[in-house]
Design a protein that fits this description.
This protein is α/β, with parallel strands linked by helices and about 160 residues long. It is built from six helices and five strands; from the N terminus they run βαβαβαβαβαα. The longest helix is centred in the middle third of the chain and has 17 residues.
């Protein structure tokens, strides 16, 4: 059985995240979406809110589960018997950052492999930080985030 994890902050979940999840779920027998709770970051949505939104977004995929993690991803993976990380990349800047993270993870656990999935072209420019800024000005989020996320953003900002 091929198990993989797709970790991220997902603050908020975007259409690009959902795209990567759907594509990865069609490849792997089991995909665990890992909502990061990084003590160094300030989030707009709580970990529970992010997990709740993500669960609703993936509820049509029987092989996808969503969980919250507040430890090192390699420790989480080890505890769940997962050896494969899926990371979405939009371009060279993302790849450079993700490549460095993959090397650090391999240093911490040499049995962890990372697979990079490029985003579909229509999601190339979608960044969570840009979406939050646009939402704060009541901008049109159509196509950037699923409707339930757009509603949650509207409630947070207005």
């Amino acid at each position: 059985m091929m198990k993989a994890a797709f970790p991220g902050s997902f603050d908020p979940p975007t259409s690009g995240h959902v795209n990567i999840i759907e594509r990865a779920a069609s490849i792997f027998d089991e995909l665990v979406v890992v909502i990061a709770e990084n003590r160094q970051k300030k989030y707009l949505f709580s970990a529970e809110e992010r997990a709740s939104m993500m669960r609703e977004l993936v509820n049509n995929r029987k092989n996808v589960t969503v969980t919250i993690c507040d430890c090192l991803i390699v420790d989480f993976l080890k505890s769940k018997g997962i050896k494969l990380l899926v990371r979405g990349v939009r371009g060279l800047e993302d790849f450079s950052y993700e490549f460095d993270l993959s090397l650090m993870n391999r240093t911490l656990d040499p049995y962890i492999e990372t697979i990079f999935m490029t985003t579909d072209p229509e999601y190339f420019v979608i960044r969570s930080s840009s979406i939050k800024e646009l939402a704060s000005f009541n901008g049109d989020l159509h196509g950037m985030v699923p409707p339930l996320v757009a509603k949650a953003l509207k409630e947070k900002y207005h």
